[in-house]
Specification:
binds coenzyme A, globular, 183 residues, 6-stranded mixed β-sheet, alpha/beta, 3 helices
């Protein structure tokens, strides 16, 4: 029990991730000063104006860049690719707004080999996700591998975004489609 406790503490401090499942680092997210120090250690880029709130998850933080004034809210999952030397970073540019529960994925499991259970097939190459400056993602949006969301575009709540979204449009639905072009 004590050994498990010590090992878990070491894992949480060293691992390239944040989230409620890493309690020995997660508590720091409840206080602004400790949140800032922790996030600057873990993420590739984390400015003073950004916030990563308790209850959010990030995997492969060292491949995640977070822009000015960005707030990562509870139940968000940012899943960059943990494999070394692979693509699969997540770039959230300045002034991006995110609702709670946004999920961002850069990878996919392989499923092309016949007669092999998918759990043993490994992963396809990861592709980076970019949320361009000033866009807004509503609550519970899911962004899939390789997607770029355009500058100052809106993604409606609950949308599943499978393809790139141009600048200055509103998209929504599953799969997300353009509802309107903004002037
Ligand atoms: C997308 C959104 C911004 C509204 O944009 P809008 O341009 O005003 O769109 P409208 O309300 O005029 O709706 C246009 C159409 O899209 C549909 N639509 C709107 N939002 C949708 C959504 N999230 N998913 C699917 N369809 C949606 C509407 O039902 C309507 O369909 P219809 O033409 O068949 O009637 C808003 O619906 C939304 O999803 N906001 C996010 C709110 C949120 O998550 N807040 C918390 C985080 S900050």
């Amino acid at each position: 029990m004590i050994k498990g406790f010590i090992n878990k503490r070491k894992f949480d401090l060293k691992s390239d991730r944040l989230g409620p499942d890493c309690p020995f680092t997660h508590w720091r997210l409840y206080f602004k000063n400790t949140m800032q120090v922790l996030c600057k250690q873990k993420f590739k880029h984390f400015p003073d104006s950004a916030e990563f709130r308790a209850g959010a998850y990030a995997i492969a933080c060292s491949k995640v860049s977070i822009g000015e004034n960005v707030i990562i809210r509870p139940n968000t999952m940012i899943f960059a690719d943990p494999r070394k030397g692979s693509d699969g970073s997540v770039i959230i540019e300045d002034n991006v707004m995110l609702g709670s529960g946004v999920h961002i994925y850069t990878g996919n499991h392989r499923f092309d080999l016949p007669n092999v259970n998918l759990i043993f097939q490994g992963h396809s190459p990861a592709k980076s996700v970019i949320l361009k400056e000033g866009c807004w993602l509503g609550a519970n949006v899911i962004i899939l591998s390789g997607v770029i969301i355009g500058k100052n575009s809106v993604v409606g709540a609950g949308s599943v975004v499978t393809k790139n979204v141009p600048d200055r449009v509103v998209v929504a639905g599953n799969p997300a489609k353009i509802l309107k072009h903004l002037e």
